Amino acid sequence: MNFERLNAYRIMWVIVMFDMPTETRVDRKRYAKFRKQILDDGFNMFQFSMYIRHCMSRENAEVHVQRVKKILPQKGHIGIMCITDKQFGQMEIFNGKDAAESPVPAQQLELF
User: What HAMAP family does the annotation carry (predicted)?
Assistant: First the structure.
């Protein structure tokens, strides 16, 4: 039980939020490329322009933060935030006035 409690503070969620211009064809292409690249890195859409990724440690989260920083587009407003699994689990999610379930992380195999 104590092991699980410690993990709730060790496991991290990386959140990428962005607003990017989509007025021109070039802008839409940049938007689509950025979105595809973060999806390829294991992020999942939480809301439009808000993507999340479950990471087993702060160090692993930092790897993915650096990957996002490497692919930042020329234009747009991008925010990157890391929160613990404990903090993420305290989020209240609603569909309209109805409560909804929080996303469940994919099973990951951790060796040693």
Answer: Cas2
